[in-house]
Amino acid sequence: MNDIALGVSHITDWQGYDHMLFLLALVARYDLRHAGRAALVATAFTLGHSLTLAVASLDLFRVPGAWVEFLIAVTILWTALWNVRPGEPSPKQKRWTYVMAAGFGLIHGLGFSSFFRISRDEAAGFIGGLFRFNLGVELGQLVIVAALLAVASLVRALGVSERDQQLFVCGGAVALSLVMALERVPW
Fold this sequence. Notes:
Shape: globular
Distance between the termini: 37 Å
Number of helices: 7
Oligomer: single chain
């Protein structure tokens, strides 16, 4: 399997539901009218995980897997709590959302790294393989985000308010990520 397809399949694999739940929490307040903003925040996440994926894949840095899995659950919890705040975010809050997504991408990149080390195409070379894998992850994320935004737009067309959508999506993400975090406590 080429590295692009590997990246797409990794991010869209239901066994990696925690990454999809993170994306859901990340775009909880958006619908298709905000597709550009949602794509930018997903790309900020990709930039963050690309950095640690590269470093960890070179074995320059390792964090025990139990801690990575716990911290991934914490990033979902934090993101859902961040996005449940009422009202339109201020320009400063919007900037912090991008910074937060990139920062949390650093943690998720550690989760991707062991999969990438095991699965990558050795013949493709490290840099080319890493770039293509990240491109595949980004493409898969954008497909997931587009699907989430389409569902959100449909729900809004049925009369659900933006606030109700936020509360429902973020509430569910908080509950699921809290259970995940408690199940993954590494100590």
